[in-house]
Amino acid sequence: MCAFVRKSHFRHVFGSAAKKDRCYEGFNVSKNSVESPYCAVNPKFLAIIIASAGGGAFLVLKHDEVGRLDPEHGRVGGHKQDVLDVAWNPFDDNMIASCSEDTTVKIWQIPDEGLGKTILTEPLLTLEGLHQRKVHQILWHPTAANILLSASYDPSIVIWNLETGEAVVEIDCHPDLIYSIDWNTNGSLIATTCKDKKIRVIDARKGTVIKEGSGHEGAKPQRVAFCGNLGYLFTCGFSRMSARQYAVWKADTLERLALEEIDQSNAVLFIHYDPDTKMIYLAGKASFIHITGDSIIRYYELVSESPHCHWLTNYSASVPQRGVCFMPKRGCDVTINEVAKCFKLVAKGYCEPISFTVPRKSELFQEDLFPDAKGDEPSLTADEWLEGKDADPKLISLRPEGSGGAKTAKKVKKGLGALGKKAPKKTAQAADEEDLEELVKKLKLQVDEQEKRIKALEEKTQNL
User: Where is the DUF1899 domain (predicted)?
Assistant: First the structure.
């Protein structure tokens, strides 16, 4: 039998916006024109860059602080000029970095209970002295703790060791403005796009260019994502006639594998790559002045065979997005088959959560949709990475019953309580309840296995 339809687990994925009472509103989004998403999210908090007089500031909201914002709600306001980008530490959900027009990068610690009505002005650490112009992009290292990258309009890239507060790598190989940067999977390489229309792959420790090639022909900004587990680079840019395009490149040779025209819009596209599902999400950015731009989030699936990139479908809304940020996979709700979750920021001061889910009738954990994902523990220390070691990200299971699942609490050391005292002995009732829970878990696993066997038999029957 010939297969006329390409097999894919994510063919029917669809986006659905949260109801109005689960959205965030009542704030003024930054009016700066830099190409930034203006927001960042993790399983605990949502950060939004806002317009503020007398210096730059951004909000930090807990996920349950929905509805209209209290005018007296706290904020982070330690920068002297506009904040241009924010990024949560992937290994500490309470730590966030911010960069600004004032040429500095600051590190902040957010308490578990959120900011309340506190205005936070004292950072944990300020990184300054090397960038001479505004800093417009920051990225945490994907596997090493306390390593942070910043890019400036100098144009220069600096990699910082936060344990010492010093710059450990300075990269000065770009002749013009750096448009975007991304790390590869283990953090040994970075890919960049520049105003000179070149794509570069750079050794992150040495700061030397390993490979350089021509990107999109258009003069407008182009962005890049490192799809390291596939060995690809994915870029979005413009043609010579200003049509929006995406392209897929071999990361080691910069050979172009695919080029496709999207449309004639002039909005720059943000790229989010999900290494677990190998899906690409593209979201355009609206102009603050004219409130025009892209109101669509497109999603594609990358594969190793030609044509390498397959369009799945679009999520459309009536209002263009000012910025978009995506939740780490460990923060997605696997019980509803949520394979991705983004927060769409609108210029009028409204933030809307959007869930991308795969429709399935079974309520059991879907292993094919949720392979082990990147966890919140670093694979290396800062010193180990600087010494030349590389390591892939540490993975966790997203199964709710598992020890590293998305719905489980933090692990607690057995035998000792939080104050170092011996834990009390279990009562007979507590022991019976634990035994019952274990039995339920075993039964669920058995049902899961039976469903797999039934599915395999059904496929064999269809082939016959």
Answer: 3-67
> Could you please report the per-residue DSSP string of 248-303?
EEETTT--EEEEEEEES--PPEEEEEETTTTEEEEEE---TTT--S--EEEEEEE-
**pLDDT digits 0-9 by tens, 124-137:** 999 999 999 999 99
* Phi, psi dihedrals of residue 450, rounded to the nearest 5°: -65, -40
> 163-170 — which CB contacts under 8 Å span 24+ positions?
163/382, 163/383, 165/125, 165/127, 167/127, 167/130, 168/386, 169/204, 169/205, 169/206, 169/207, 170/130, 170/207
Long-range contacts of 206-212 (CB under 8 A, 24+ apart): 206/169, 207/157, 207/169, 207/170, 207/171, 207/172, 207/173, 208/173, 209/173, 211/252, 211/253, 211/254, 212/254
The pLDDT tens digits for 411-427 are: 333 332 322 333 334 44
d(CA 32, CA 49): 10
